[in-house]
Amino acid sequence: MPKEYYDHTAVETKWQHAWEEARLFLGTQKKGQDLVQKQYLLFAFAYPSGSGLHVGHVESKTALDIVARYDRMNGKDVFFPVGWDAFGLPAENYAIKTGVHPAETTKNAINTFRRQIKRLGISYDWDNEIATNNPGYYKWTQWIFLQLYNKGLAYQKDGKVNWCPSCQTVLANEQVVEGLCERCDSEVIQKDMKQWYFQITKYKDELISGLDTVDWPEPTKAQQLNWIGKKTGIEVTYPIKGSDKSITCFTTRPDTNFGATFVVLAPEHSLAIEVAQENATVAAYLEAAEKKTELERQQEGKKKSGAFTGLYAVNPLTGRDMPVWVSDFVLGSFGTGAVVGVPAHDVRDFQFVKFVNLQVTSSAEKIEVIRVIEATDGDRSDITATEHVYEDDGVIMNSDFLDGLSVSKAQEKIMDHMEAEGFGKRVTTYRLRDWLISRQRYWGTPIPVVYDPEGNPHPVKEEHLPWQLPTDVDFNPTGESPLKSSKEFIARTEKLYGKGWRPEFDTMDTFVDSSWYYLRYVDSRNTESLAISEQLNKWLPVDLYMIGPEHIVLHLLYSRFFTKFLRDEGHLAFDEPFGKMRHQGMILGPDGKKMSKSKGNVINPDEIIEKFGADTLRVYEMFMGPLEADKPWDVRAVIGVYKFLQRINRLVSSPTTTKDEDISLTQVLHQTLKKVTEDIPKLKFNTAIAELMKLSNAWEAAQKSGADMTVSQKEIVAKMFAPFAPFLADELYHQVTGVADTDFVHTSSWPVFDPELAKAQAVIIPVQINGKVRAQLEVASEDIADEDGILERARTTEEIQKYLQGKEIKKEIYVPGKIINLVVV
RNA sequence: GCCGUGGUGGCGGAAUUGGUAGACGCGCGAGACUUAAAAUCUCGUGAUAGCAAUAUCGUGUGGGUUCGAUUCCCACCCGCGGCACCA
After folding, report:
1. Comparing A39-43, A182-186, A559-563, A652-656, which segment has the lowest mean pLDDT?
2. A654 CB below 7 A from strand B atoms
3. Gap from A691 CA to B44 C1', in Å?
4. Rg over CA atoms, chain A
5. Is the dihedral of CA A607, A610, A612, A618 positive or negative?
6. CA angle, corner A474, sides to A473 and A477, nearest 5?
């Protein structure tokens, strides 16, 4: 490094230690104290992975740290805690591979993360650090379980669960990705087990309505809504011809029911199973369908298959006989497990008809396609190809008393009619299912339940909490819960509850741990309660939550459920845990692809810090682009930021050559201050940094002509850098002001810009002829309202005159302060 | 297939209640300093044509609205993320 460069390592370690020594950002819980203006900033609970901090962590942590430092300088009470989502499968899998105990792995990983984060200069309040594997924490995870249990919201249920043969554990439906295990990509099979569930569905309607009260990105809300999946539709009952039986189908499009021409049962439907007793074709089909995995059924989605039951259902609207088929494109778990087919207005139905009509021999068995909606372009032609299937809005036709109505009006009318005639019943369905929390794993919070000798579950007594995770455990997978191998665990249970009693051997889904951590922070060392109400209601809800898009559905939904439950229990006085939420984008490798070890495109933050310093890493990542966008890493651009910080250091720390302000430089300074002040709360860090770069350019130019900033102006510059490059900023602040090393730029107050100085002095107004810029007018800012005068000037400008020769001005447009357009012919 | 989201120079990006497209940075080119290099500084840098002034084109593609469109409307193409054939 050249001599004139400041030594980033020396500067950064110096201030890191000075802040630590001064306990600068600690003790912010403020128990028993009033708050000026609270600002609870929360970073998504991080899993301390063995590979250490990732540049993606750096991005979101830095973004929040900028807000934290800025808000503190603006006099707010900032609460910015940190903790670890420390239970989880990776540590257990690592233990299985290497024999190193998960507790050991986790401790080491946390130490690494802690060191890296401190080196980055994130101004966390480490006093409140928590980790979910700490008994002092999971005591309260278990306590919440007991509260849910007492209210009947934690219950056991038998049923098919997703079983991952590799992880040897059960997965929630939500954790199965395209039939594969979310974590290890093994194919998931179905298995019967007794499991613990939380009844999140109790809150389904409030989980919907609460979204109206939070400041979240709209697409995030939409994803939550889709996940909950509230749908209003109608169950229509069709009698079966020549029988006293009937089939009930659920549909959201009853408006198309005059075009219904067939019915399909899921292979799991009871009637299908009944028919299979005497119909060999159907029996064979059911057998084949049962063998298919969820994945196969998905993959074969477009390739329809099925078997005819020989039955006909009667459409009461038309009197038409509708053949009843069995097909696995209909899901047994959704609606009623039976669907009425309208091939003209549903692509899947049309494809099924195509399959059937190729299959059957007699034309009487072929299924008809009847159009009942006229397209918005007036198209009423027959539907003969998949591309013509019309699923959109339009005008109803071929539908007796519905003809001429819009889709939505027809839906209301037909549902009224079906209910009045007694063959339909309006129903609301939800996609959301209860939350399966049992895991047959070691490295998690033990479920606080014991079983009496008859096998009946009983909650662990509260005085026995924390119900400790045993350590004498063989965590190698055997297909059974690892906790079964602990002698201590069983002995403990018998000692406390009696001979023949057994503990629950399953642990909880780690999503349970992370569904309430934001509550614990505000009173993190409390041994009597999960946190006292006064602290909870003082700090929460969270004012800014920064999480990656991968947590949009599950974590948020579960956290919101816990918050609502604890509110109902009287512990919380708010309904939603996270007021404002924003997402950071992904930092991609230099090749524009997602970073991964296998692609070899991973950028290690430690290396960047060593070469260029934490300030450079921070400023670079903030300068890459908008926070929420995915951005590729550019190795060379990092150096550009490094040089920029070196230049700022040079400019601020060089001897001040003037006492008098240079007015134009002062104006630029205040314009910069205005922009930075406005951009930080909007999280528009990339443009704020661009503005600071412009300032350094203007400053350098001013120096060449003999001008300089005054000492107090340099102080403003140092303060503006404090949120972005906190180490350099403190170094410069001390150089400029000469304050003692026990004072810090981070405890100084944010400078206030002068609106007069920040205002542009003169406005450049482009003059267009027929929309093309031909000249520019410089107009003093006090004159911009003078429309006539400005238009006159525009017309008489020399460059404009030549375009007006022999032409007539048809129209003159003046947008004050923005543009002039002369329309000529 | 469905849902969401995005597409702007060689690259990252800036600018949208419709008003000079390309701020800022990277890269590249030329120059200054230097024995030389590094570092630093200066100038230039959307494309095409031209010595130049300048002209024309230009924000994924094709239309439309408008005095004026990256921004609004319609259709389409491509990338990314998510997914549950959800009736």
Report:
1. A182-186
2. no
3. 23
4. 34
5. positive
6. 130
Residues A215 and A579: beta-carbon distance below 8 Å = yes
A 409-468: CB within 7 Å of strand B: 431
Q: Could you count the other beta carbons within 10 Å of the beta carbon of residue A412? A: 12
Name the nucleotide with the smallest C1'–CA separation from A697. Answer: B24
CA–CA separation, A538 vs A41, rounded Å?
A: 14
In this predicted model, what pLDDT tens digit does every residue of A238-280 receive, in sequence order? 999 888 889 999 888 888 899 999 999 988 888 888 888 988 9
Q: Which of A677, A559, A534, A729 lies closest to A123 in space, CA to CA?
A: A729
- Does the pLDDT at position A335 exceed 50? yes
> Which of A131, A112, A124 lies closest to A51 in space, CA to CA?
A112
Name the DSSP class of A370: -
- The three-class DSSP label of residue A109 is helix
Contacts of A403 (CB under 8 A, 6+ apart): A396, A397
Query: Higher model confidence: residue A484 or residue A117?
Result: A117
Give residue numbers, 544 to 573 of A, with CB < 7 Å from strand B: 549-550
What is the Cα–Cα distance from A675 to A175, expressed in whole angstroms?
44
- The answer to whether the C-beta of A701 is closer than 7 A to strand B is yes
Q: Give yes or no for a contact between A371 and A403, defined as CB atoms under 8 angstroms apart.
A: no
Does the structure show a pLDDT above 70 at A376? no
Residue reference for tokens 């039976």? A338
A772 strand B contact, CB < 7 Å? yes
Q: Spell out which residues of A between 194 and 233 contact strand B, using CB within 7 Å.
A: 218-219, 222-223, 226-227, 229, 231, 233
Whether the pLDDT of residue A175 is over 60: the answer is: no
Residue A300: the pLDDT is 45
| Nearest nucleotide (C1') to alpha carbon of A633 | B12
Interface ipTM: 0.91
Predicted local distance difference test score (pLDDT) of residue A2 = 40
Residue A819 confidence (pLDDT): 85
Listed as ranges, the nucleotides of chain B within 7 A of a protein C-beta are 1, 3-5, 11-15, 19-21, 23-27, 38-42, 55-56, 67-69, 80-87
The length of chain A in residues reads 825
Alpha helices in A542-684 (DSSP H): 554-568, 605-612, 614-623, 635-653, 663-679
Is the Cβ atom of A624 within 7 Å of strand B at any atom? yes
Pairing of strands A321-326, A246-251: unpaired
Contact A613, A12 (CB under 8 A): yes
Please report, in angstroms and rounded to a whole number, the separation of the first and last CA atoms in chain A: 64
Contact yes or no for A37/A77 (Cβ under 8 A): yes
A 155-184: CB within 7 Å of strand B: 173, 176-178
Residue A295 pLDDT: 44
Which positions 288-307 on chain A have a beta carbon less than 7 angstroms from any atom of strand B?
Answer: 297-298, 300-302, 304
pLDDT in tens, A785-817: 788 888 888 888 777 777 777 777 888 888 887
A760 touches strand B (CB under 7 A): no
- d(CA A157, CA A438) in angstroms, rounded, equals 11
CB proximity A4–strand B (7 Å threshold): yes
Could you identify the residue whose CA is nearest to the C1' atom of nucleotide B83? A178
Cα separation values, A117 from A82, A566, A623, A800, Å: 10, 32, 20, 60
Strands A587-588, A631-632: parallel, antiparallel or unpaired by DSSP? parallel
How many other β-carbons are positioned within 10 Å of the β-carbon of residue A330?
A: 26
Q: In angstroms, how far is CA A547 from the centroid of its own chain?
A: 6
* Cβ-contact A572, A539 below 8 angstroms: no
Lowest-confidence region among A595-599, A697-701, A712-716: A595-599
- Quickly give A772 CA vs B57 C1' distance in Å: 13
